[in-house]
Each structure stands twice: as C-alpha cells, then as structure tokens.
Amino acid sequence: MFIKSVKSLTSFKADLTLRKLCMNTMNAPKSKRCDSNFKRNFGQPSFNTHPHLIKEGEVTPFITKSEYQDRRCNLVECILKHAATNNKEKSHVIVIPAASKQYMSDKIPYVFRQNTEFLYLTGCQEPDCCVVITAESSGQLCTTFFTRDKDEHAELWDGPRTHPEQATDFFGVEQSLPISELDNFLKSYRKSNKNLMLWYDFLTPVQNSVHKVISDYISDSRNQKCDNPKSFIHRLRLYKSPAEIALMQKSCDITAKAFKEAMSSSKPCLGENQIFAEIDYRCRMQGAEYLAYPPVVAGGSRATIIHYINNNQLINDGEMVLVDAGCEYHGYSSDVTRTWPVNGKFTPQQREIYEVVYSVQEELIQMCSSLPTLDALFESMCYLLGKRLQEIGLIGIQPSSEYLMKTAYQLCPHHVSHYLGMDIHDTPMINRNINIAPGMIITIEPGIYVCEKNKSLPKEYQGIGIRIEDDILITVNGPVVLSRKCPKHIDEIEKIVCQNQ
Q1: Which of 307, 376, 457, 497 is the most exposed place for a label (fewest CB within 10 A)?
Q2: Pair 339, 442: CB distance under 8 Å
Q3: For residue 487, which of 497, 478, 474 has the smallest C-alpha distance?
Q4: Which positions ≥6 away from 277 have C-beta within 8 Å?
Q5: What is the pTM assigned to this prediction?
C-alpha cells in the first residue's frame, strides 16, 4: 500500500489557534528554519554539535531522517491494512509518548532511557515529548511532534530542549507543537473526523501527563474506538535494517573486547564486582552509553543461580566465573555470556561440561539455517544436551527422547533463545513459535547448571554452572554470529586467562 505524507495543514480542519501555531513553523522559509538549527543546540546530539557521532542527514548515529520517516509510513501501512479487513474507520490517530525522567530520590534522577517505541519511530532522545500520527484510509498521513514547552529556567539547569520551530526539520515531521497543545490538538482533530480510531497503549503508560490527556479524551467521547499499536510496531522492529545491523555489530564488538579484557585480568580471589567494573569500564571507553542490563558475574556455585546479580563475592582458585553482560550502543543492545576458570585452567569436570554446552550451541547455531522457530530450537537444545550428557555417562541410558529432554530441562530450566534488538528481550509481543527469518537477530544460549543440592550427578560435578551465549543475525546465506570476536573455545580462553597469571 502506498502511503502519502501530507505536506501541509490544509487537509486538516483544525481550529484556528492550532492552525496558526503549526503554520508559523511550516510557512517559515527553509533557509531561516535551517539557520535557527545552526544557531542553537538541540536537546540531543546533532551533526552540527556532535559531528564525531552524527553524520549529516542522520538523526541518531547510523540512522537517517528518511529511515525514521519510512518507519512511520510502514506503521501506518500496517494499521490501515489491518483496519481495512476489520473495521470501517476512515481516520486514525496514533499516539506514542516519550518516557519521563524517573527519580531515585528527591531531585536525583536515574539514567534516562527513552521509551523504545517512541525512539524507534522518531529518534528523539528527550523526555516528556510525544508523537501523533494522523492517517486517512486513503493513505495520507501527517506526523505531529509535540516537544516540551519552552522553559528558560529548566534549560539553564538541565540543558537545551528542541523547540517546535526546530523539531520539524530535525526529526523530519510535517508539523510540531508544544506538548501543552496535545489536548487541544486531539479534540480539534476529532471534531472534523467523526469516524475515528485511536491507537494508544493503555496497558503500559509511559508518561503520566500524556496518559491523563488520553484518558480525558476518551471519557469525553463514549463512542471512541481504541486499540493498542504496540504489536504492529514490534512486527516492524523484529526485522533489522542495514543501519540497525551495523549498530548491533558494533555493540557486539564492544562487548567482545570488554570480555577479553575481563578474561585477561582474571586471577584467583578476584572479586565479582571487579569483573563487573572491568566490563562496564571497557564498554564505556569504547563508546557504549551503559551496560544493557545488570550483568551476572557469578563465581563458583553461584553460577547455578540463573539471575544472580549480587556480584559481591570473591572467586576462589579452581572456580569458574559465569559472566552474562552486554552494552547499549546508541539504542541497540548486545547480550553475551561466557564462562571461564579464573586461574586459566579448566578442571576435567569443568572441561567435560563446557564441551557439552559448546558442542550443543554450535549445532543449534547451524540449525538456524533451516529457519526453525525459537521454541523448536529450545526442544532441540533439551534433546541434544540430554544426548551429550548420556554419551559421557553423566545421566542414565534410556532410549526415549522424552527422558533425555526432561533430564536436560532439569539442568537447563530456561529457554535457549529470545529476540534481540533495541531491548534485550526484544519485541516481547512476538511469539516464539513463529519461524525465524532473514533480518531477525536472536540469541542462542544453552547452559548446564548442577546445583549443589542435585544428587543425581557425581559430587565432583556439583556446583558447576556453565552458559555460552551468542547473538545471531539470520540471513539468506545462513546465520552470522555477531559476537564472534568474543573468545569461547577452551584453548583460546585458557591462553587469554593464563597470559597474565
């Protein structure tokens, strides 16, 4: 379906006040609008202020204004296609708010992270904004960007904001207004578009002020039809563009190098917190904004605790450390796990279990060529783990695959894969029972965890926890391991760890 982008406000029968506000921005000479962009900072990096990060034509690193425009057009196309077969609405309003700052205490904020859906559609990294996409069944659309209101005092303390007269050109939208006009805009649009469908996520509101506006807007109209656009956005986000793949490759390269440094600095009696700090430092020094999630740095038997994040113990001689970490690089995440002995030498039992996990992971990665579902990969993992453990004599000899899978699941009680992208567990509204396809990025992460209470395996194996996780790009030519630079072969790991012992 061809989506046409409306280039003026004449197609909207908005009230006079709103029309004047928007037309003042739209009718300004292009050179004048561009000059204002050069004279002052935006509320985020731009080519003019951060040429070491942003190239001309990009809104965020690697991603151009036109790509963000295409994303919005693709979203409208998906919604109109769905509407054509399910209802008769002629007009659609899609409201996606930015996140708000969150505070740990009084005036001390947490590190701000943008609402992923809003970031995906706009590239805007500022809090408390909103984007509204209005679309007609004919295919015409108009994107209205709502910026934070001008506040000289706030900007003195917190830095510049992107104002409406700048946002139009910078973000590639048709019009821009201050956020205080959102309520008037929605009500005005409804007056001239009676047969209207509102698309807004009521289940997980991310900005209280916008949520209140939408709630009041709904209560004013008993016949207002509403639905959640999130599933449509997730379907688009599932397939990565070349720019997104480049960003994720860089994120994986940064993480791989940080892991190598952490391995080379390992030694007995090192603190888990020190490995945490090493990875965090190395990722940031290479350009990552921060770690993508609280990392697992689990020494010894603590590696059998899947989500161990206390990271406050010492790792003794003869023990391994399981590290699950990744970084966020300009909005895109990596997710890698490696397990290694801090003294540089695997014990026979550690080596035996590691080789089982390693061989299973390699086989699962190759299976991606046949484009299975993630659930099918999980079933294969359980069967393969059980088979390998049976081959080395650690579980009983029984011919049934059901026995192998059940036994393996007790030793690896988590799924083997999830989608990866802007979020670690990316696009959660996409089921794991669909076939993977070129353009998707997933993880492959088998593991074996023999807790100390598990008496089914010999005592010398109790307390061993091993997981190996890589990030995999699915292509028409087969899987590509984006995290391939992160060492995982036993010989390579021992060489890196031992070199500084």
Answers
A1: 307
A2: no
A3: 497
A4: none
A5: 0.91
Mapped onto helix, strand or coil, the DSSP state of residue 29 is coil
User: How far does the chain reach from its first CA to its final CA, in angstroms?
Assistant: 62
The H or E element that residue 447 is part of is strand 447-449
Instruction: Judge if 213 and 247 occupy the same domain.
Output: no
| Residue that is last in its domain, among 202, 237, 272 | 237
Q: What domain range is 391 assigned to?
A: 242-498
Indicate whether 249 and 226 sit together in one domain.
Answer: no
Residues 194 and 257 in one domain: no
Q: What is the pLDDT of residues 263-315, one digit of tens each?
A: 999 999 999 999 999 999 999 999 999 999 999 999 999 999 999 999 999 99
Where b means 16+ CB within 10 Å and e means fewer, 117-146 reads bbbbbbbbbbbbbbbbbbbbeeeebbbbbb
Query: pLDDT tens digit string along 353-362?
Result: 999 999 999 9
Same domain? 271 vs 152 = no
Residue 240 has pLDDT above 70, yes or no: yes
Are 226 and 280 within one domain? no
What HEC string does 307-347 produce? CCCCCCCEECCCCEEEEEECEEECCEECCEEEEEECCCCCC
The pLDDT of residue 40 is 60
My answer on whether 61 and 23 are in the same domain is yes
Closest Cα to residue 420, out of 398, 402, 447, 443? 443
SS3 108: strand
Average pLDDT, rounded, for the chain: 91
Domain count across the chain: 2
Mean pLDDT to the nearest integer, 115-130: 98
Collapsing DSSP states into helix, strand and coil, what is residue 440? Answer: coil
| Cα-to-chain-centroid distance, residue 300 | 30
- Domain stop point among 176, 210, 237: 237
pLDDT for residue 8 is more than 60: no
Same domain membership, residue 199 and residue 229: yes
